[in-house]
Amino acid sequence: MMRYLILDQREKARSGLERQLARYPNIECLGSHAAPGNGDVWHGTRPDIVFLGSDLPGLETLLCRNGNAGHHTPVVVMLGDLPVHALTAIELQVTDFLLRPVDTIRLEECLRRVRLELQRQRDLAQVDSLSETLAEIRNGEASANIGQVYRDFWIRSLHETVRVPQSSIIWIEAARGYSYFNLEQRQLLHRISLLELESRLDPAHFLRVHRSAIVNVHYIVRTQANRHGTYQLSLANGEQVRIGRKYRNKLADYMAGRQGESLVAA
What's the domain count of the chain? Predict the structure, then answer.
């Protein structure tokens, strides 16, 4: 079963697309809204695919949040009135673009692409899981690396190369072979995997909390469970990062050892 959500300001476009999708078996509608949710952009649902209107305010920010480890990451298809809107879709690296009104044959092709992308994501997740297991086996001796120097990062951004001290990193999220470094004033994209980062970050200050997230422990404010039963970290900069089930015990052990200490960076 493939589940979808529609976020489009135009009610007529939403209802029309919903009617078209109702013809296909094994496709379920989770909702149709004029705008993203305030707290949870996907309105408390976990869709496999989201159809986004190209004229939604803050579209670029919304897509930047998609993929955040603290949020569910569906496949995105953009909807637009003009062919030129396809250029925006390409720039924002969404999976596909559909011209309104949506052509039936074109919609079928779009759903085929979405299924292929979902399968690709499942395959990548399996590869990541196996890679993690192998890395844990191979790096069993990492704890013996006493006296290791944990160096700053140099990250290329547009026409400059930026020095990023480890102390300035709030948290890091995986992004398909790259990693987003979330700092206090900006976000930088660096071509490095979380597996490699784990060996380069100081373990006294950084902790893996999710398959796709590493946090600076000094910015942790609290942990909390949401209404869906998943656990999240609240960070000092206001962001929330989801805690993976396999990492909960490690985080709990760390926090138990820091009872009475302030975790928030000065």
Answer: 2
Residue 265 has pLDDT above 60, yes or no: no
CATH of the domain at 19: 3.40.50.2300
Token pair of 237, please?
Answer: 């900069």
Entry pTM? 0.54
Phi-psi region of 4 (alpha: psi -120 to 50; beta: other; left: phi over 0): beta
Cis, peptide link before residue 101, omega less than 30° from 0: yes
Say yes or no: 84 and 156 in one domain. no
Using only C-alpha atoms, what is the Rg of the chain? 20
**In which domain, by residue range, is 217 found?**
150-256
* Same domain as 248, residue 180: yes
Q: What is the pLDDT of residues 198-223, one digit of tens each?
A: 889 998 899 999 989 999 999 999 88
DSSP states along 98-151: EESSPPHHHHHHHHHHHHHHHHHHHHHHHHHHHHHHHHHHHTTTGGG-TT---P
The size of the chain, in residues, is: 266
